[in-house]
Amino acid sequence: MAIFPKPLQALIEAFRKFPGVGEKNAQRYAFYLLRQSPEFLENLAKHIVELPAHIVRCAICGLVDESSPCRFDRDTGRDSTTICVVAETPDVAVIEQSGEFHGRYHVLGGVLNPLEGITPDQLNIQSLLERIRNNRVREVIIATNPDLEGETTSLHLKKILAPLKVKVTRLGKGLPMGATLEYADEVTVANALRGRQSA
């Protein structure tokens, strides 16, 4: 016999699909919404429903934005000869907050993880190679997380970028092994950008 009413249980199950959310947190989120006003819930539902219609992936770099090309690829003031490669869009926000990078971005859409079946052909790598070949790119900064998957991705990128004769660097000091870029503070990311090294 179910403990909670069906609509509430369905909401709990929906929250459990979020990354890092277990049963207890899913229940907490569901009961939090239950205590909110109908106006709050309608507004939240409206934002969720409108998301697919107003958000696209940039055809150039893969960044999630309101239009394609994205705001960074439209910005003529940014250095188009330097590309910072990140795993996901939230990583771009972290690097931007550091105030140290003024080039363009390239979002892979994940990192290599053979155990989960994520292979190079599933990442946004081919378009990166095309960008480098078709533009005067001088440096590619690999800004994946310094964990096993991030390092594996970095090594793969370094290998396939080698024939293109472009300078390949990796974020340097400031990011300890196993850290997640998304949760790093601005000073740490700024130090890592300043201290980047050959990949």
Element layout with pairings:
Blueprint (H helix, E strand, L loop, with lengths): L5 H11 L6 H12 L3 H17 L1 E2 L6 E2 L5 H4 L4 E8 L2 H10 L4 E5 L18 H9 L4 E4 L5 H14 L5 E4 L15 H9 L2 E2 L1
Parallel strand pairs: 3-4, 3-5, 5-6
Antiparallel strand pairs: 1-2, 6-7
Helix pairs in contact: 1-2, 5-8
Describe the structure in your own words:
- α1 (6-16) crosses α2 and α5 packs across α8.
- The protein is built from eight helices and seven strands; from the N terminus they run αααββαβαβαβαβαβ.
- The model has no long low-confidence stretch (mean pLDDT 89).
- With 199 residues, the chain is of the alpha/beta class.
- It has helices at residues 6-16, 23-34, 38-54, 71-74, 89-98, 126-134, 148-161, 186-194, and strands spanning 56-57, 64-65, 79-86, 103-107, 139-142, 167-170, 197-198.
- It is elongated, with a radius of gyration of 20 Å.
- It folds into two domains: 6-54, Orthogonal Bundle (Helicase, Ruva Protein, domain 3), CATH 1.10.8.420; 71-198, Dna Topoisomerase Vi A Subunit, Chain: A, domain 2 (3-Layer(aba) Sandwich).
- It has a five-stranded mixed beta sheet.
- The chain starts with 5 loop residues before the first helix and ends with a strand.
